[in-house]
Write a structure and sequence with these properties.
single chain; about 425 residues; mainly alpha; 18 helices; globular
């Protein structure tokens, strides 16, 4: 499970991130709870998530082109420094008790701009920091495990801190958590990435990347599946403060239980993926995970028991993690070397870019038909999308068999 940690650079990256991502979840949990507690508005709760993620929809292709041309190691140091600056500004704002929603929204947008480049850089840098390329899928899964462990620890810790000490301690904790990751990045020894000799042309790079993804039929189908899930399904998480506070009459700690339950499911899923010896069954894993995600959130929507709701959150975490990570691993391992950064940028655009749009949609829809009905519809959409994906996958397989030589077709049958 831990074979990628044999690579010294990946080990430094992994240990540095182990502190930073917990700080990120501290801040994320505190922001969600604070915005909803101060404003009482589901729309503003969704808008905060929207602004922190929407830049990925527009900037990811640009990020993929730029990151693929320049030194990823130096870019990562710069991006993490900017993220630390954003965290420090937010911590100072809350420490001074300036609960200005416009300032918070502006800082959320700034964070989203940084993340659109940071996520692309982080994913494409994996190939540089893993010595044995066969360990790449293991490194991706371990990184996902780390992120989801933080999803357990971060909200759980945030629930305690919010209840005992206040939100300003959460924001200060995130600011300080960037110190270890910057130290680990500075300690890495990576062969400098060779700069591109041709000039940067965003439109040409965008078209080239789009044509490549379109040509890779299986990758295109997976990205469309992810885009549908991110737009209409995964954004159900945005409504968890409503479930915790209004539906189950809880507090900040109850909200942290929902986040941690999803994190427990996600980490179990990530451990399973990290132990896989082969990475050629990602399509089947993605289908099973998507079905689990859909059914679990339908049950969650109408549950009257907090225990059942938390179990459903854990199962949704298993499904969501396996769905997104299986697609990520497929793209990381199957993309051509010169197109990897652009393929990953489309992955991030379909994933990170669509979630904020979905957050706004469900924030609006929940006002009209209610929170429970909205989440149930999201689960139904998830199951329908799987049916559509399987149908078109079988159609393309049939077409491939019809066009291949007779002797090969018979062997396949």
């Amino acid at each position: 499970m831990f074979k990628a940690l044999k690579s010294k650079n990946f080990k430094l990256f992994f240990y540095g991130q182990s502190v930073s991502v917990i700080g990120t979840w501290l801040q994320k949990t505190a922001v969600s709870w604070m915005v909803y507690s101060v404003t009482g508005s589901v729309f503003l709760l969704g808008l905060t998530t929207f602004l922190s993620m929407i830049p990925s929809l527009f900037l990811s292709p640009l990020a993929g082109s730029i990151i693929g041309r320049y030194d990823r190691h130096k870019a990562m140091i710069l991006l993490q420094s900017l993220a630390m600056l954003q965290a420090g500004a937010l911590a100072l704002l809350i420490y001074l008790k300036i609960y200005n929603i416009n300032f918070i929204l502006a800082l959320s947008l700034f964070q989203g701009i940084i993340n659109s480049f940071d996520m692309t850089c982080r994913q494409t840098m994996m190939i540089d920091i893993v010595d044995n390329k066969e360990d790449l899928s293991n490194a991706v899964a371990l990184n996902s495990t780390l992120n989801n462990f933080a999803r357990i620890a971060g909200p759980a810790l945030a629930g305690i801190i919010l209840h005992q000490y206040g939100e300003d301690v959460c924001f200060m904790g995130n600011f300080l958590s960037y110190i270890p990751v910057l130290i680990s990045l500075l300690m890495m020894k990576i062969t400098p990435h060779i700069k591109a000799t041709d000039k940067f042309k965003m439109l040409d790079d965008f078209i080239e990347g789009f044509d490549y993804v379109k040509k890779e039929a299986e990758m295109a189908k997976m990205l469309l599946m992810l885009m549908c899930s991110s737009l209409f399904v995964i954004s159900f998480n945005t409504l968890m403060p409503v479930f915790a506070k209004d539906i189950f009459s809880g507090n900040a700690q109850t909200f942290s239980w929902f986040e941690s339950a999803a994190g427990i499911g996600s980490i179990l899923s990530a451990i399973y993926l990290a132990n896989l010896k082969r990475s050629d069954n990602m399509g089947k894993i993605m289908i099973a995970a998507s079905l689990l995600l859909g059914f679990s959130i339908i049950i969650l929507a109408y549950s009257n028991s907090l225990t059942v709701a938390l179990i459903c959150m854990a199962l949704s975490g298993v499904g969501m993690m396996a769905q997104t990570s299986s697609i990520n691993i497929y793209i990381q391992t199957q993309s051509a070397v010169n197109m990897r950064s652009r393929s990953i940028s489309y992955y991030l655009m379909a994933y990170q870019g669509m979630i904020p749009v979905g957050s706004l949609i469900i924030g609006y829809v929940s006002h009209i038909i209610g929170t429970r009905n909205t989440v149930a519809i999201q689960g139904i959409i998830c199951i329908i999308s799987v049916i559509v994906y399987v149908y078109y996958k079988r159609q393309s397989t049939s077409e491939d068999l019809e066009t291949c030589p007779v002797e090969y077709r018979n062997s396949k049958i």
